[in-house]
Amino acid sequence: MAQVELTGGKKKGALNASGRNFLSKKIFALFLATLVSVSGHLAVAQQAKVYRVGVIIEGGPYYLAVDGLKEGLKQLGFAEGSHYILEIRDLKGDRKAAEAVARSLEREKVDLIYTGASSVTIAVKRATTRVPIVFAVGSDPVADGLVDSYAKPGGRLTGVDIHSDDLTAKRLEILKAILPGLHKVVTFYDPGNAIALANAKSAEEAARQLGIELAERRVASVEGLRLSIEELKPQEADAFFYINDAMVTSQAQFIIDIARVKKLPTMFFESDLVKQGALAAYGTSYYEAGRLSAKYVQSVLTGTNPRDLPVESLSRVKLVVNLKTARAIGVTIPQAVLLRADEVIQ
Question: For residues 204 and 207, what is the distance between their CA atoms, to the nearest angstrom?
């Protein structure tokens, strides 16, 4: 039987074999493309996890730490909205609300809780059992029972120590240098806050050594604090002196504004508050504390156990003074203090 030939002289049987081979290659190529596409989608799905970070703060200047945290995470390539979202819970100075808020965030299965202030962190640890915690605290986290040691935290907490309580005596000494005629300072704190009580004792001892009378105003609520500040008479104190108390910190701007009206010099810990009108501050920056905390937050979110992340100290301490405020309240800051200052706001 004669064979049927096509153009080019190839036989039909040979064409079929070639066609099948071509078809097989095409199917295989399609399979590979599909596999790559599926793998790509899976990779995107894995990358698309958005971590939920609960943030528990007392409000006020503590938002500076949140701003620093966002900036630090951005520098590490973690974008808000794409990689993480913050579930911010502002206690508005009510420390007692911290435990209920912490339990609620743990029930909501946030991936991590970030805390500002020692008293808040202690409450959050007490109220939770599973969620990892990254903190920025002002008192010794070992003494407060938050971690076993700086080098080996040993549990589900780690973070940054900003050493605010260690600087109480030095801060009062600098206030005396700013106001050589200083005789009496007023301070406010919550007697129910163990951290504040410890700092009040440090302030009392420093005041005795400097020959200064410390007028203590014990206030158990934000409302009580505000009322006490508003009712303060000019003859009751030569200056306001801050001790480490998160509730008082939350009301820093209110204190600054009232003190300015009363022409009362103010000495704070948080250096950024001087830009907001305080006369002076000696301490660290909540913003920097937040920025430094970012590496802990990212590490824990991506799988590192907090117990493997040593606690770090924020060692950069600044003296900042505000000449504009000084002029407004009739205070002349000695030249020796201005030369010593790390920053002078004109």
Answer: 5
